[in-house]
Design a protein that fits this description.
By secondary structure, this protein is α+β, with helices and mostly antiparallel strands. It is built from 8 helices and 11 strands. It has one domain: Beta-lactamase (3-Layer(aba) Sandwich), CATH 3.40.710. Strand 9 and strand 10 form a beta hairpin.
């Protein structure tokens, strides 16, 4: 009887301690969700159903729709005036008139959030940009993103909106594409225009892909004034596949800080869980 009472008390303590730890995860991002893909369990959420602009997180869906179309990755695509950002007037090193294989534009859109690359991918979709955006919204519904809407492929429009909960579904879906896993976590890359000398050097917009302490499978950053700084990832933490969604982080380094806080919190909880299990086994 004493052993049974001890185990009941231990279980109550561990449960209470886990709840307390959940409450002690202090993230600065306005909306957040941490999701264990393996057991489909939401570990942590904060304003996870709040609809907000998602900036360049959009490009994950751009990549999915592009890959689903099974277009040749080696097709040469020229950058046109239609690909120039006339909404936010962001800069690009992909000059109008330069040409690149589709796979190069896809890599730059994912790893370095190149807006002209994403725009060109949408423009050259069969039947054009309207068909591309329609395919984005159809795919969103197919994977259960019920509070999401896309109006263009770059994320420059603040009318591209979603929630942290919906974006966790997008990241999990993106992880099924080997190309997205590869391209979105490329730490740096050099690309040259077709028939042009000289190369352009790009680095990943997520510094964590260059951090040996992280094992990241899918990554995408985003930023707009209306959206704040955003970061979504699927990473292996303590042997578990975990999706992390961080939206509207206003500080320059806040999203990276929040990601590191999530990782440390999960690792600490896993360590405590293992210690608690060890004590319970010994009590038997």
């Amino acid at each position: 009887m004493k052993r049974i009472l001890f185990l009941v008390c231990a279980l109550f303590f561990c449960t209470h301690h886990a709840v307390a730890q959940r409450n002690h995860l202090d993230l600065k991002s306005q909306s957040a969700l941490v999701f264990n893909v393996q057991d489909e369990h939401v570990i942590y959420d904060k304003n996870a159903d709040q609809i907000a602009p998602i900036a360049s997180i959009t490009k994950l869906m751009t990549a999915i729709v592009t890959l689903d179309a099974r277009l040749s990755p080696n097709d040469i695509i020229s950058i046109e005036n239609a690909d120039v950002d006339k909404l936010k007037h962001t800069a690009s090193r992909l000059r109008v008139g330069s040409s690149y294989p589709r796979h190069e534009l896809l890599r730059l859109a994912l790893m370095s959030s190149e807006n002209r690359a994403a725009a060109a991918l949408g423009r050259t979709y069969p039947d054009g940009i309207e068909a591309f955006v329609n395919a984005m919204n159809i795919k969103a519904q197919q994977i259960g993103m019920s509070n999401t809407r896309f109006v263009e492929p770059t994320g420059l429009s603040s009318n591209n909106v979603s929630t942290a909960r919906d974006l966790a579904k997008l990241v999990a879906a993106a992880n099924n594409y080997t190309v997205i896993r590869d391209f979105s976590t490329t730490s740096q890359h050099s690309v040259a225009a077709v028939d042009k000398r000289g190369q352009l050097q790009y680095v990943n917009s997520n510094s964590l892909v260059r951090n040996q302490g992280w094992e990241i499978d899918v990554s995408k950053t985003g930023y707009l004034n209306e959206a704040g700084r955003c970061l979504v990832m699927q990473a292996n933490i303590s042997g578990q596949p975990v999706v992390i969604v961080l939206l509207n982080s206003w500080g320059k380094n806040t999203r990276i800080g929040d990601a590191n806080r999530v990782k440390k919190w999960l690792e600490n909880n896993q360590s405590r869980k293992q210690q608690a299990n060890s004590r319970s086994i010994k009590a038997l």
